[in-house]
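Task: fold both queries, return tokens.
Query 1:
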Amino acid sequence: MQLLDNEYDLLVIGGGINGAGIAADASGRGLKVLLCEQDDLASATSSNSSKLIHGGLRYLEHYQFRLVKEALLEREVLLKKAPHIIWPLSFRLPHQSHLRPPWMIRLGLFIYDHLGKRDTLPASKSIIFTKDSVLNASITQGFEYADGWVDDARLVILNALAAEQHGATIATRTRCIKAQRNIEHWDVTLAQQTTQQQLQIKAKCIVNAAGPWVASLFDNVFIQPSPQHIRLVKGSHIVVPRIHHEPCAYILQNEDQRIVFVIPFEDDYSLIGTTDEEYTGNIKDVKISKQEISYLINITNHYFKTPIEATDIVHTFSGVRPLLDDHSADAQAVTRDYKLILNNDDNQAALLSVFGGKITTYRKLAENAVDKLALFYPHMTEAWTKSAPLPGGDFSEKATLITQLQVKYNWLPELLLNRLVRSYGTLTNALLGNCSALADLGCHFGHGLYAQEVDYLIAKEWAKTSDDILWRRTKLGLRFSKAQVTALDNYLRTLNY
């Protein structure tokens, strides 16, 4: 990696959703921004979520009304900002005797409906499950409400693209290994992970948005105590062939009060999760346990007619969430709120650290973070991200966009076009470029992935490896065989990047 400059207004450490969101917000306000990420963008927590844009219905049980309200308001903002990767999703909550009485759940849903703005989503309602239901016969009543679904990793990528479009430099696989504070700036040493080449830069301020590593940076980079304790909580998911073909998701509540979602995923699959477990191991080694697999299978089989077993699992993933330590007894009760801590002791260069947070409120968190830095940048312009679409999201109706692209690229298979629009929106035009026939897309690696898309992801979206492409820029890893992955790896080795 070669950086064209070595002096920046702002260094953002961490290429997850908070770091990418802050980089986008700050660069759009006129700051010269460098974002560094030690691995790939969205390679940790931000690609291992339940992929929901939601207020957090269960957070009402813990009286986190401010957090829920902010998340519900942001839900509406994000549905408009990125209609290609975020869309409405109905959730059904089956009722059983171990849950709170129906009147209490109905009251909670009424509060959920009215606590935040609801422009596009329908109100909640009570429902009756008939004998034709996908649920076990003993479940006859429940509730339905609406939230949103998101391609979490692509949300990070699009924010990084927005930052770059406003002049930011995005340095992936680049680790911050040392930061020395002076009166007017930080002297920072970065290490390129593949070559270990070291680079020296100066930054007026630093934002520590390293997610699960936010506290460890104080020990290893800033050499000072962390101002906030965090709790690392592991959340795991399994993916199985589609349990049912209804377009809605289900929210299941176990007798231990933990919540599990069963969500339609990539057309042919069901995504089931999450778990909540304290985590103390190496963050990079996080993976699902046998106990978590059994837990997710058991609660799913308790509710659904179609049983699943471990041999049905086609994919698993786990993420470590860095949550504020609010001294809750149980991991699932730990707050999903966030805290921004600004430190510029003795008028030295400022350090802003991000603790906690959830994907739904990333934009508001980023806006608040950059607002806190305003006193150091008198030339900085006003907040701008609330009404600006993310790259590729500058359209109103997905069906209309698909129709327009079908006319322009009438040779493109319908399934492939739908996937491209769902990932890239109007950027599909840039991806396809001057292609005028299927043969122009180059080598076909399988399941609609052609060299044209691979080359685009390398050139425009910082992709380097098959995992970057198959699991974060797309979800085609669910469908690829080992032989197909090997063919893609071989192609990537032929490229000089």
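Query 1 returned. Query 2:
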Amino acid sequence: MDWIRGHTIGHGSSAAVSAAKSRLSGEVFAVKSVELSKSQLLQKEQKILSELSSPYIVSYKGYDVTKEKDKLMFNLMMEYMPDGTLSDEIRKQGGRINEPLIGYYTKQVVQGLEYLHSRGIAHCDIKGQNILLSKTGANIADFGCSRWVDPADRDGGAEPIGGTPMFMAPEVARGEEQGCPADIWGLGCTIIEMATGGSPWTNVTSASSLLYKIAFSGQSPEIPKFLSLQARDFLNKCLRRDSKERWTAKQLLKHPFLEESNLNSTSTNQNFVTSSPTSILDQDIWNSVETMDSTILQEVSSPLQRLRDLSSNSGELNWRWNDDQMWITVRSSNNE
């Protein structure tokens, strides 16, 4: 497939993301690319995304290998979501989103999670930056950290731990396990992000101290008191430290907070002017951590050192669009 690459619009957990346009149809889509020799994670993401079809998951468009500047590139093509990320929406709303709109987006994310989990897939990096918006609502995106939770579906044995420190569940921060319950914890943290415009954890200054707090303090993120009783109860079901006690996505869909969220997004999309997000938004603890070799987590003896190693690599996700940028023609390598 011949297509035209636009400028970089962001970085996912495993590769750069660019705008792209079909030379034949003119269709605009997003393409996630990395050098073929370094594309193991992106090929795994492609395999997962190609098996998914849901109105709550970003659509898969295909993949190819191209030759650009004498380098072979592996490209994953996806639906382009014009309205940016949920984190962008929080900023547009003045730093907070009102509760009806929180319920609207949350229900769509939970529907997406229920679909994923029913197919034995854990996303492993649920956060506002990985929820993309369009006129039809919220779509889960960036499957760079995702995994099959059934050991029979795994390639090459145990999966490495990955994700974003600020949204990690306690069992993940301890390096014990990362499955579907961890997505529910990340959902709870994302709701707090929507409600407050700030971080689910406060008074932390580094990724290592944050992960240590998540793993061993016995605390959970503080649930905003200004939310309704139903919203607070919903969060309580998501943010239970024991992963076995957290509600599943299927259970959460029956919670009263979501049962009343059959709202039209335009009717709830009202400005909620409050204080701007906290400065912690700009710190590394909000950024995505590349998946690591699992042997690293097994070899270190100190829990704190393990957490420091886990948080050593981070990248920033920032989806942006600029029509003035130059397009570059790209051709499939088999045409070269």
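Both queries returned. Flag for query 2: The first helix runs from residue 40 to 50.
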